[in-house]
Amino acid sequence: MSSVTQLMSLITAASMMVSGTLNAAAPQHDIDGPLFLANRQYTVSEAYAPADLEMSDVSGQVRRLRPAAAKALREMFDACKEETGVKLISISGYRSYETQEGIYARKLRSVKKNEAKAQEFVAPPGASEHQLGVAMDIGQKHKVNLEISFGKTEGAKWARENCWRFGFILRYDEPWEEITGYKYEPWHFRYVGKKYAKEIHKANVPLETWLISHRVEMLRELLSVDLSIPEEIPAEEPATPSDMAASPTDLKAAGSK
Ligand SMILES: [Zn+2]
Q1: Which helix (H) or strand (E) holds 83?
Q2: pTM surpassing 0.70?
Q3: Whether the Cβ atoms of residue 123 and residue 185 lie closer than 8 Å to each other
Q4: Between the CA atoms of 128, 196, 53 and 77, what dihedral angle is there, to the nearest 10 degrees?
């Protein structure tokens, strides 16, 4: 291997380490990770579409999600049926940037181009978690129109209390409107995986807020250096002749050969 090639592979390895570290420290920027944040502030590029979408095996429509989310949704719906007798249904899973663009344009026309009004419920293209393939809007019988009243149903109550067991979080709760930028949506669940869903549910804060503390924790771990001073500092031993700087005179005096 030439030294240039060696240098290049070293640089590649180093930059991979750096980007891995950055992803760990800022998980909200890792689009392949479970904590990628998509909202009005952090938008998804027009070019992004998950490569591994699949149809979730549940009743309802627009059932495409990324595989882990699709499987978890099935488990959640099954558990709800078993524990409450209520059959949840999917209403809207994966949506492409273009689909979101169309929905937003229609909403905008219906409110006479008032953007603030349009954005109360509809995310502009790129600002929707549905483009990530990890969000699902749910409903139940007679509640399929994404209405606030869904929140009062047994199915919705069960879902908000139990979704974390399957790796989902309720993304837009009522007290969080200022932080998430979205009105209360009792139907919108986001998959983050069981480990994080449990932590976020326990913290009872929106993903935006939780990510800040999670990031601080990750940075602390990444930067952790053991700076503690040993409890017992060994007593200094008296200097021996060998410790002393030997000057030519000393060497002569010692009769060194
Ligand atoms: Zn939604």
Answers
A1: helix 67-84
A2: yes
A3: no
A4: -100
End-to-end alpha-carbon separation of the chain, Å?
49
Using DSSP's 3-state secondary structure scheme, residue 190 falls into: strand
Residue 185 annotated to the active site: yes
Calculate how far, in angstroms, residue 119's C-alpha sits from the geometric centre of ligand 1.
13
The DSSP letter of residue 148 is G
How many angstroms is it from 121 CA to the middle of ligand 1? Answer: 9
Residue with tokens 């809007």: 137
Cα(84) to ligand 1 centroid in Å equals 23
Q: Which candidate in 98, 185, 217, 237 is catalytic?
A: 185
Q: Distances from the Cα of 233 to the Cαs of 59, 211, 239, in angstroms?
A: 69, 41, 17
Task: Please tell me the distance between residue 30's alpha carbon and the centre of ligand 1 in angstroms.
Answer: 21
- Asked whether the beta carbons of 168 and 189 are under 8 A apart, the reply is yes
Residue 122 CA to ligand 1 centre (angstroms): 9
The burial class, CB within 10 Å (0-12 / 13-18 / 19+), for 184 is middle
pLDDT truncated to tens, each residue of the chain (257 aa)? 567 677 767 666 666 666 666 666 778 888 878 999 999 889 999 999 999 999 999 999 999 999 999 999 999 999 999 999 999 999 999 999 999 999 999 999 999 999 888 887 788 999 999 999 999 999 998 888 889 999 999 999 999 999 999 999 999 999 999 999 888 999 999 999 999 999 999 999 999 999 999 988 888 888 875 656 666 655 555 555 444 444 444 444 444 44
Q: Class assignment of domain 24-221?
A: alpha beta
Long-range contacts of 211-220 (CB under 8 A, 24+ apart): 211/27, 211/28, 211/35, 211/37, 214/27, 214/35, 215/25, 215/26, 215/27, 215/28, 218/24, 218/25, 218/27, 219/25
